[in-house]
Specification:
two-stranded parallel ribbon; single chain
């Protein structure tokens, strides 16, 4: 996304002074899509590996020790049930 944004800037199509979060987000591969509500992390890893860092600021995280090839519908339903119980505050207390 940043590379494409810079190319548009070089062509004079973008004014850097007017660049804001919304404009930047449009240049990401996920531009135009809503941010995820729930991120399911398999293999028990407690890291994101630079995955969707911009988009997951207010995303709920559900971690399971199950590896991706072994992840079944039952695990998915478990994640959804857990998510339903959460009180989302979007960064607030």
């Amino acid at each position: 996304g940043v590379k494409k944004l810079f190319q548009e800037y070089e062509k004079g199509k973008i004014d850097i002074e007017s660049l804001d979060e919304r404009t930047f987000a449009r240049y990401l591969d996920t531009g135009g899509l809503p941010d995820p509500d729930l991120l399911i992390r398999t293999s028990g890893e407690m890291r994101f590996s630079n995955f969707l860092l911009w988009q997951i600021a207010y995303t709920e995280l559900w971690v399971t020790p199950v590896y991706w090839p072994d992840f079944k519908r039952s695990h998915y339903l478990q994640a959804l049930k857990d998510y339903q119980k959460r009180d989302r505050r979007y960064g607030g207390r």
